[in-house]
Specification:
Layout: H1 6-23, E1 27-35, E2 38-45, E3 51-59, H2 73-91, E4 97-105, E5 108-113
Parallel strand pairs: 3-4
Antiparallel strand pairs: 1-2, 2-3, 4-5
Length: about 120
């Protein structure tokens, strides 16, 4: 059996996160949206109409760092800028939105931090 590539591991983690979010009543609108300088892992919408831009971080339990440490201020700015592009090019109006982080450890959601990135 061959080892999964980094991209395959990321896609698997995003699939776990999407399933988890759907279980909480979120509607997945889009995945892996790319704009110059950034990517949005999952774009979802809550039952009350809030657009949620989700950063997914996957890691193994023996990882030397927690995955939330990888969401640096630079990464946060890129996520925010990419979300602004998404809203401007896909939604075309001002909407209520927030940024969540979902952490996947060994194939399970361990954390869902709502509003973890602020403008």
């Amino acid at each position: 059996m061959t080892a999964l590539s980094r991209k395959q591991k990321g896609n698997l983690g995003e699939a776990f996160a999407a399933k988890y979010l759907e279980g909480k009543g979120y509607r997945i609108i889009d995945r892996n949206f790319y704009a110059k300088g950034g990517e949005l892992d999952i774009i979802a919408k809550t039952n009350d109409g809030v657009w949620v831009f989700v950063e997914v971080k996957s890691y193994k339990s023996n990882s030397p760092i927690h995955p939330l440490e990888a969401i640096t201020p630079l990464k946060q700015r890129r996520i925010i800028r990419t979300a602004q592009v998404y809203i401007a090019t896909r939604i075309y109006k001002e909407v209520a939105s927030r940024f969540d982080c979902v952490v996947i450890q060994d194939g399970e959601v361990t954390h869902h931090l709502e509003n973890c990135i602020s403008l």
